[in-house]
Write a structure and sequence with these properties.
elongated; 4 helices; mainly alpha; 100 residues; 70% helix
Length: 100
């Protein structure tokens, strides 16, 4: 089996990531999200050339670090880490305009 494993892992990561954490990116411009996922995919596919299936660690390690940061940041700022509530406070912390 070749690069299909990495492609499948990227697909699953993207689907789960956007489904679970999409609530935290409601005001993020689509182009910023596209660039982020392009970088993740590009790094993983480039790393596959040198590391083989170990290239998945290029994705897995930053994801684990990001989750640790996410839960720490949310706890420190009084935000629920699963549904971004209270929403007004979350928008305030992100610097987004709150619209009622």
């Amino acid at each position: 089996m070749g690069i299909e494993v990495e492609l499948a892992a990227l697909f699953v990561l993207h689907v789960l990531g956007t489904s679970i954490f999409g609530v935290f990116e409601t005001e993020t411009p689509w182009c910023r999200l596209a660039v982020k996922w392009g970088i993740v995919a590009g790094l993983t596919l480039a790393a596959y050339r040198w590391l083989g299936h170990w290239a998945l660690t290029v994705v897995a390690l930053p994801v684990m670090a990001g989750l640790a940061f996410h839960f720490t940041w949310c706890a420190r700022n009084g935000i629920d880490p699963f549904d971004a509530t209270p929403r007004r406070r979350y928008y305030e912390l992100r610097g987004w305009e709150w619209r009622e």
